[in-house]
Amino acid sequence: MTSAAAPGMVHGTGAPSPWLVRWAHLIAPGAHVLDLACGHGRHARWLAARGAHVTAVDRDAAALATMATLTGVTTLIADLEGAPWPFAPGETFDAVVVTNYLHRPLFNAIAASVAPGGVLIYETFAHGNERYGKPSNPLFLLAPGELLAVAGEAGLRVAGFEDVTLPAPRAACVQRLCATRAAPGENPGTAALYEAAA
User: Fold this and answer.
1) Is 5 helix (H, G, I), strand (E, B) or coil?
2) Which residues is 32 bridged to in the sheet?
3) Could you report the per-residue pLDDT of 94-148, keeping only the tens digit for each?
4) How far apart are CA 179 and CA 110, in angstroms?
5) pLDDT tens-digit series, residues 139-168
6) In percent, how much of the chain has pLDDT > 70?
């Protein structure tokens, strides 16, 4: 399993990630957003309520069905690990959101889905989390600086990065990245500059 939630919670329910909330000002009203491995859609719901047009992708048809009548949300059933990338080559989004999900073969496709002027907001479990529970398999835990490397290889500008241990809703080690792709005519910047964890 590559996604996880706090004990007693269904992945995709509850309040939005504070990391997403912190960087949501980079997602303009009316933006086209990809919420990947969305579960029951806590972020799709929150973003749609802010005026975004969200494509919510997951392999769980029952979870996606809970969003069937939501304004601003289009659902897509897709097996992200056992089938081809579900979007056409070159298809991009104004924002790509990934939380509590890690499948390294998708890193390139995820980064390539960020449109010029767009933003990638990514947060998932990191090495050290095995001390606190699941996920504990290293395949599902980011190595130190791994999201920074992904951004650098994709030519994204890092606006914020953290590699931290969170105390709540349960103790967990996570990495968090917010990175942008330069719009035409903008300085492409560098992935070397980032906001360090407090």
Assistant:
1) coil
2) 53
3) 999 999 999 999 999 999 999 999 999 999 999 988 888 898 888 899 999 999 9
4) 12
5) 899 999 999 999 999 999 999 999 999 887
6) 87
| DSSP E strand stretches across the chain | 32-36, 53-58, 73-77, 93-99, 114-125, 157-166, 172-180
Closest CA to 124 of 23, 19, 35: 19
List, in sequence order, every residue forming a beta bridge with 176; answer none if it has no partner.
123, 162
How far apart are alpha carbons 93 and 120 in whole angstroms?
10
Is the preceding peptide bond at 135 cis, omega within 30 degrees of 0? yes
pTM (2 d.p.): 0.88
Q: Which residues of 140-171 are buried (b: 16+ CB within 10 A; e: fewer)?
A: bbbeeebbbebbbebebbbbbbbbeebeeeee
Nearest to 11 by CA among 45, 33, 41, 47: 41
